[in-house]
Amino acid sequence: MKSILLVEDDIAFSQMLKRFLERHKFNIVLSHSIAQSKSLIKEEHFDLIFTDLRLPDGDGISLLDDVKHSLKHTPVVLMTSYAEVTTAVKAMKNGAFDYISKPFNPDELLEIIKNALEENPETSKEGALNTKISDTNKKQKAKKESATSNPTFITGISKASKKLYEYIDLVAPTDMSVLITGESGTGKEVVAKSIHLQSTRREAPFIAVDCGAIPKEIASSEFFGHKKGSFTGAFNDKIGHFEAANNGTLFLDEVGNLSYENQIQLLRALQERRVKPIGSNTEIEVDIRLITATNEDLLKAVEANTFREDLYHRLNEFSIQVPNLSERQSDIILYADFFLSKANTQLKKEVVGFSSEVVKRFQNYSWPGNLRELSNVIKRATLLTTGDYIEVTALPEKFKTDAQQKSGIENFSKKDNEKELIINALNEVDYNRTKAAKLLNITRKTLYNKMKEYDIK
Fold it and tell me: Which residue of 130, 136, 172, 436 pairs with 198 in a disulfide if CB–CB is 3.0 to 4.6 A?
């Protein structure tokens, strides 16, 4: 049975969380302060540490630093409120495994615990320990190299993001053609470049081409090049995209926009791995890895005879669906923090972060424009902000109406929802305070104090 240290000063909430995790076969040890936690860590072994960011004698960051110094393999997960998410993001850079914003639902909680325990080498069987450490180090090294070369690729923590990274990790080392699908603004080119940077071709060129911006009349010249004088306006020799990407990766964005004639030319080049510049008698051998992207349904285009089926299958040796931003709620503040940093640099500003209300509205907005919309909203808000934090007044009008909070069947509550937890317990036992205190696993005195604090009659 895996042992988890839960550090939380909200007694009612911690007891509720303890009972829930114990029902899922975890051994839970409670602590209500940093000092108590440090003593427990010296006395007992824990597979995972869950800590609130705000504690009576300090914050979870100091506990994280202490754990990373003495127990570097023990994962630490931070529990935060909306207003503290930016701080939690920075904590992840200092070694925290993950963070989870209150209120959170049980499935989200269990998923984070599962991922943390799987990545902790000390929870593996001893026989596979060295192999797991080695594999983990290799993956971390590859991701660091990718992040350094591709700073716009943010490693998200949502379930949808983790599935995306799994696919990228699987296909990147191969030479398979990849078809990336997803809504406009989801970052398909960023995914393509990440695949390139994790491949054996990472030292070779990555050439990105927007097929929607190429008129069909000059597509052959753009793809395969031309010789000087081969047609009106050909004043110089031109190297085509295929030749420019030789030994590297050619990324064709919005490939569904290619004309039927251009599709035939593309298919021939992919089959023969040779291209002939316009006006030349010599074919050039090319060795490329092809990645394509579209926000259209190419299968429907095939059925409508506007996209060649043989080309579709050539492009779709492996497909990746990039999730939209509304499916990556846990990542929104990660991306917001990145775009804020970028906006500060571009606009020569020093905005620190976001107000709690802005974070709430970001979390509850549907983001139809995905990452592109988020980037634009934050850049505009950064320009308008004169203080340390972006406030709702700096956001577009659509954010200024009260955001409707998401609801779940069973949500764990943060401190400002403790009142609801106590009322529910009282209702369950017909306002018998002794039974309610027992149900909440707190003393009657604590219950009375809480009822007085929240004006519960």
Answer: 172
